[in-house]
Design a protein that fits this description.
The complex is a heterodimer of chains A (313) and B (451).
Chain A lengths: L12 H36 L1 E5 L9 E5 L3 H8 L1 H34 L5 H9 L6 H12 L5 H8 L12 H26 L3 H9 L4 H12 L1 H16 L3 H6 L12 H10 L4 H32 L4
Antiparallel strand pairs in A: 1-2
Helix pairs in contact in A: 1-13, 2-13, 3-7, 3-10, 4-7, 5-7, 10-13, 12-13
Chain B lengths: L2 H10 L9 H12 L21 E7 L5 H10 L3 E7 L6 H12 L5 E5 L3 H6 L20 H6 L1 E2 L2 E2 L1 E14 H7 L7 H13 L12 H11 L4 E4 L2 E4 L4 H15 L11 H9 L4 E5 L2 H8 L7 E4 L13 E9 L6 H13 L1 H9 L4 E2 L23 H9 L11 H18 L3 H18 L4 E3 L1
Parallel strand pairs in B: 1-2, 1-3, 8-13
Antiparallel strand pairs in B: 3-11, 4-5, 6-9, 6-10, 6-11, 6-12, 7-8
Helix pairs in contact in B: 1-2, 3-14, 9-10, 16-17
The chains are: A mainly alpha (313), B alpha+beta (451).
């Protein structure tokens, strides 16, 4: 790391010394960053470019060699309609679930922000609690509420003459969406509240003097000001959606509608650990990361541009 | 839920959604744990134990109560201590762990591996050919077809432990109440299914994800999914006998004479407890499962032979069953083999294994069939193991498993899931899986053709 100075002039001695000191402080971070972040990614990339070659009778007990595969693993992954269908599925999921969840989280945040001081702490904690439940546990909990014969919900619907199947082909994706919404709405709400707390009180005073009602304050002051937090929570949710794994993995044995490539992450996992093809799995993981990257930055650019057209957001 | 999945899960979804590349990093970390894929296979020759030297062998297994016979071995063989490490058998987690250990170059000495999965470890060069260490002299102690399951060419890679001959578990009380005879042929089975449906119950569920049971049904009908010609694998999943089986079950499913929920899951257990499902096509290890999960139905169950395609035939199949395999990296192959043989042939060891419910022994002697009637009371006093014993004799022994069975089960599961979902017939499943399996084996760098 070198300090890049804007002006074309030479460092003074003190500046050079402080730059050295700064890089000294940066080293531990850099070392960890390289070891824990860059190295695994580089290794996944490397693995995705190899394949196994086997010789010997029937490939049993012969030689196995790792040879250069070029992009053939990527081709294999993209030709696998299970894998691509999984992508389509999580994108559909995201298009429906993310706006709903963010809208819900925003509504809760505004309500709690506007509420009088009583019980606010309690409700904030209550909404946030599901986030403390690990995804696997949450899926097991909800699984019990979805499985016919055990679920009180299904039983109630039955007694009213409705035939509901939460784990059926059409419904199971939305049953998963429900679990994810339950888990993350509170978390996103908390991020939004944190930003609302940072809004200076003078703005509200000024609005009141101008005769704005609570609705107008929310619409014209709060919402524009928590825009960065909204963007942040949306990007996090987008990435999380692409990485859906625990929920389908846990519900798979309970449902006859989830296949082994239901989400891209599940496909990569099964490729690595069921089929023992780590090279294809690595390629699938890299593809997943690329798509997440493109979508996230695409979204950021989109809202960034819009922000500049409007106010100075 | 497997441990691997759980750990990776905390990486992926249990944390705030942090980093764009988190998925790749986590996946890569998964591989990083699996070591750097060293390619040498073993290197140094294993050495013999010096006289009086004390060694410890590690053994990965999930058989309930396996520690009891192992403790007995340890008390008798102080020089060769065996240390059991329990592995999870949920969703193939144990094999993921074994494959990863082989890649990392630190597998255990011994491991429990099911018959269908043995070849996938050979493709990895993970198992030791035991012929060098005199395994052949024990051949006659084991049931022939089980021995053949892990014999490829001249090599033998594992010692048979137990099998799962198939049979039909029925709720005799309900069959009696409804005046239905236990079916002896598949035609009668269909008639029984119709009659039971009229009573508002179901005869069975066809679980999409149950590739191993479907394989058993095809096996019974005379299918041979895998074979070898010279150095080439042959795949014939889409053959006539399998088509017959697929058509049969598709017909039952289409006419809604059977359920299509996953079996051995909560909803199914509930159905079994309430009599909503009145029979189960299971295997000899299924007794413990019913006893454990439907205790209130005690005394009402019986076991009858699997229905036949032709009246009077005695063609049966196998579902499940395990071997004790020795991993290629072991330093003490002779001792490992000695333990594997002892574990699966010594009468005292077999007695302990039977008591804990491990299936039908792979050994020919050292026990009596009546010893296997552990849950006699649950079956109204029936000597039910006789039925499985008979079935065991009627298993066609030329059936071979291919080198990627886990993947095959997954393919079958996915294709059946899709077919049941959109109502397409089961023949389409066979066609699809046949093509996919050939592609999968090619992908593994093997020579393969349609059989």
């Amino acid at each position: 790391m070198r300090r890049v100075s804007k002006a074309p002039r030479r460092f003074t001695r003190t500046e050079a010394r402080s730059a050295r000191a700064a890089s000294g402080f940066l080293l531990p971070f850099l070392a960890l960053f390289l070891l824990c972040f860059i190295a695994p990614i580089a290794y996944a990339l490397y693995e995705s470019l190899l394949k196994v070659e086997r010789t010997g009778p029937l490939g049993l007990g012969g030689e196995t060699k790792q040879v250069w595969a070029g992009l053939s693993n990527y081709a294999h992954a993209l030709e696998d309609d299970r894998f691509t269908a999984g992508f389509g599925r999580v994108l559909l999921f995201g298009a429906v679930q993310i706006p709903l969840m963010i809208a819900f989280a925003t509504a809760l945040a505004l309500l709690l922000d506007a509420a009088s001081a009583r019980w606010v702490g309690f409700f904030r904690t209550a909404f946030f609690l599901p986030y403390g439940v690990p995804g696997v546990i949450a899926s097991i909990l909800w699984g019990f509420l979805y499985v016919p014969g055990i679920s009180p919900l299904v039983e109630m619907a039955d007694s009213m003459g409705w035939d509901v199947d939460f784990l059926g082909r059409g419904a199971v994706l939305w049953s998963i969406a429900n679990i994810v919404t339950w888990q993350f709405t509170g978390y996103n709400m908390l991020v939004l509240i944190a930003q609302l707390k940072a809004v200076p009180g003078e703005l509200y005073e000024a609005a009141r003097i101008d005769g704005a009602n609570a609705w107008q304050v929310a619409r014209h002051i709060k919402l524009p000001l928590i825009r960065p937090a909204l963007v942040l929570t949306t990007v996090f949710s987008l990435i999380g959606t692409l990485q859906l794994f625990a929920e389908p993995k846990v519900l798979k044995p309970l449902s006859n509608s989830i296949d082994s490539g239901y989400t891209p992450n599940l496909a990569a996992y099964n490729e690595a650990f069921t089929s023992n093809n780590q090279h294809i799995a690595a390629a699938e993981a890299v593809l997943l990361a690329l798509v997440a990257c493109v979508l996230s930055f695409g979204f950021l650019r989109l809202v960034g541009r819009r922000g500049k057209d409007g106010d100075n957001g | 839920m497997s441990d691997t999945a759980r750990n990776r899960n905390t990486w992926m979804t249990g944390t705030p959604r942090r980093a764009v590349l988190g998925g790749a990093a986590a996946a890569a970390a998964g591989f990083a744990l699996a070591g750097c894929g060293s390619d040498d296979d073993g290197g140094g020759e294993p050495k013999d134990r010096k006289k009086g030297e004390k060694i410890t062998l590690t053994f990965w297994s999930w058989v309930p109560g396996i520690d009891k016979p192992v403790a007995l071995w340890n008390s008798k063989n102080p020089e060769v201590r065996v240390k059991v490490e329990k592995v999870s058998a949920v969703d193939g987690a144990q094999y993921a762990k074994m494959h990863a250990a082989i890649k990392a170059g630190n597998p255990p000495d011994l491991g429990q591996i099911e018959y269908p999965v043995v070849p996938s470890f050979l493709v990895d060069n993970g198992l030791l050919d035991l012929t060098k260490y005199g395994v052949a002299e024990h051949k006659d102690m084991f049931i022939g077809w089980q021995w053949q399951q892990s014999a490829f060419g001249k090599a033998v890679y594992a010692v048979p432990q137990a099998s799962g001959p198939m049979g039909l578990f029925i709720r005799q009380d309900l069959f009696d109440k409804w005046g239905i005879e236990p079916p002896t042929t598949w035609d009668e089975y269909e008639a029984a299914a119709t009659a039971i449906r009229k009573r508002g119950a179901w005869i069975e569920t066809f679980s999409a994800t149950n590739g191993n049971r479907f394989a058993g049904l095809a096996w019974q009908a005379g299918a041979r999914w895998f074979g070898t010609e010279g150095d080439t694998w042959t795949v014939s999943i889409d053959d006539e006998p399998t088509r017959k089986v697929a058509d049969y079950w598709y017909d039952l499913a289409r006419r809604k004479l059977i359920k299509t929920i996953p079996d051995r899951q909560n909803a199914w257990y509930k159905d079994v407890q309430t009599g909503s499902i009145a029979s189960w096509l299971g295997a000899s290890w299924g007794d413990a499962l019913l006893v454990g999960n439907a205790p209130k139905t005690a005394g009402k169950w019986r076991v009858v032979p699997m229905p036949q395609w032709k009246k009077g035939d005695a063609s049966y199949a196998n579902w499940g069953g395990s071997t004790t395999a020795v991993f290629a990296k072991t330093k003490y192959p002779k001792d490992a083999l000695a333990f594997a043989i002892w574990l699966n042939t010594d009468p005292e060891s077999i007695k302990l294994l039977i008591e804990n419910g491990y299936g039908t022994p792979g050994a020919k002697q050292g026990y009596t069939t009546s010893q296997l009637d552990v849950h006699k009371d649950f079956f109204g006093g029936q000597a039910y193991s006789k039925v499985f014993d008979e079935a065991s004799k009627g298993v066609d022994t030329s059936w071979k498993w291919g080198p990627a069975t886990d993947t095959l089960y997954q393919r079958l599961g996915d294709a059946f899931t899709a077919a049941i979902g959109d109502g397409s017939d089961f023949r389409s499943v066979l066609k699809k899986v046949q093509g996919e399996t050939i592609a999968d084996l090619k992908e593994k760098g093997l020579k393969v053709k349609a059989g």
